[in-house]
């Protein structure tokens, strides 16, 4: 089915804004509607996991930016948390991998969120990438092909 990625992101953010006292800002430069061919529940889970991580690992505001790049949509989830070293960036998408297990123990994660998110995105012919600097924060970006003509 065709899923409007703008609405899907806004719906997920609404859940977080209602449940936690966090400031999540959504930037969208383009249309009201950006369609992708997708399993809606699975994509919701991806966006949910990435925002959930941003909430768990940072205190400040979270920025979600939706933009169109060529024939793809990019959903960038940016936080201003501790960041992830280049070495760890190579491993965080592995199943059960968690950075600094002692530090994270209280967060009660399983280390599965990102590996599941990555396989869902790849099953949709997309990409999930991270860009991060220690002490500055992290940006996780989901790239998915847009439905062009319908
Ligand atoms: P869960 O499976 O419940 O999400 P988790 O958060 O430990 O548990 P992943 O989502 O797979 O598992 O993340 C793997 C690791 O990557 C985390 O343990 C954390 O160390 C690191 N990580 C993920 N997102 C961020 C982020 N936004 N900022 C800093 N570190 C992060």
UniProtKB/TrEMBL annotation:
The residue ranges of the Histidine kinase domain are 1-148
> What compartments host this protein?
Cell membrane
Question: What is the official name of this protein in its record?
Answer: Signal transduction histidine-protein kinase ArlS
List the source organism.
Answer: Virgibacillus necropolis
Q: Which residues of the full protein are shown?
A: 301 to 450 of 450
